[in-house]
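Predict structure. Chain length: 584.
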Amino acid sequence: MNRQFVWPTFLDAWIVHDDGDIVVVDKPAGMPSQSTHPGGTDDVVARLGVHLGGAYLGVHQRLDKDTSGLLVFARRREANAGLAAQFEGRSVEKTYVACVTGWPTAKQRASLRSALAPDKNGAMRVVAERTPGAKVAVTDARVLSRRGQRAMLELRLATGRTHQARVQLAHAGAPIAGDVLYGGAPAPRLLLHASAIAFRHPITARHVRFASPLPPELEVWLSRGDLAEGVYDDDAAFDRALRLALERRWTFGRSDAISSRLITSGRGGGEEPATTTAFRLVNDTGDALPRLAIDVYDSWLVAQLYTDGDPGGGLWGDAVRRERLLTRLDALGFDGIYLKVRPKQANVLVDTRRDDLAPACPVRGCAAPFEFAIVEDGMPLLVRLGDGLSTGLFLDQRGNRRRVRELAEGKRVANLFAYTCGFTVAAALGGATRTVSVDASTVALERGKANLANAAVLDRGEHVLVVADAFAWISHAVRARERFDLVILDPPSYSTTKRGRFVADTDYVDLAASTLELLAPHGKLLACTNHRGIGRSRFRHVLYEAARAAKREVSQMKDFAVPPDYPVPVGGEPHAKTALVTVV
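Prediction complete.
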């Protein structure tokens, strides 16, 4: 496959005007204005600079990642001062278009004036003007068109505060559709577009104005609302959603181009490029593509179709719709596509190797090797794409594997419910002196041993693999007074053991309490769950309750956000919850 084709550095079509003094671009949604990591090259400035052959770019404005529209840059230092003076003097005219719900029917125009300041979580809020750090924001709004409770507004921003329009409209009871942070209605993305910009040319002094066409998704949402599953029967809407998902994952898709993005080895051995070749490309409703997840494994895609039970019924029971989806994915140019049909509910147990659910051969393109290594933050991990519903690697744990690698140096580490030992590989690469990996499956641990061998860490410290029921092993280890500095607890949401049935919703407290007894003084528990019935706040409560039951004092509990390739839908909770618990 050609990664430059799938994730282009920059397209000529995004350049609206370039006269050698200034360049105006129409930024697509999903592209950040500022890099997501220090020294990164995934933002519009860096990518445009590469496209223009390393040209100088003077930066004076930003748009949120999922906001589309116009940005102007100075191409010469002589032009930069003139642009800077206009932005600082607020003489640049900036016009936006937003789609909202809740705008009063009788109100055709309004001027929104309020003071804004960040809350403890970093989100901007309307506050009293005398609040320390507060800055006044002014936005003039005009209704362009309506459809029931949905309205399209033209916005003129007299000031340039962070999230200004988003916060003020939400405070007025009319949040922008698709705004996950400020409570917008469901939409394919944040429906905010920088539609026009006007200023005096910094060299010629002529008044210039540039306009950008309205993205189709704004007009579609206004007329029809959120398409939900109907997106699969509208080719143009599906293509827009897929393009946005691709743009949002540019950092991963082109990690080969982000040479300055580095991670520490965790063992005092310097740094290495954070190459990542496996990640989630489409995350269900978080990418406005319900009942669909698509994962990238190097040069192959794995498409996962979620059903309510019968794989031959519902949305994906329509053979024409399913084939149309696969054909459009095939056009991306990956070497092959594997298919997995999954029940939507995790407690629906199925035979994971049924050929109608998980064909061993790709449904498009050529086959991947039976087992091969992907790279995750520079760490090799083995996967199998045609061996049932699972590939041997849970991609949503990438951030947690990085944390284990960073914490493991000189530590004794226990990896419970170890599966194929991805966490163990991370701990070993991070310099753990001893690891114990526990899983009830001999086959899984054999794959785990192969993972350790492939990463060349079998001779780094002591690594023990234990085939045992994790619940029973924990009890035995506690009685034997085994102690660990770091324990990873990532049980399945539902399982059946010799002791009975485990359901995370009701049994996680007891399991976590037992596990906390394994910790040495100042030890850490990395606790995870993907049970959809356990929210983030409740998960914290569960872990504090477990600590009380285990009579362990918690000195710190830290939550972690889901990885950026697993976006959360409007009004939704992340499916994966993680907390790092440190005890006294």
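Summary: The chain has a mean pLDDT of 92.
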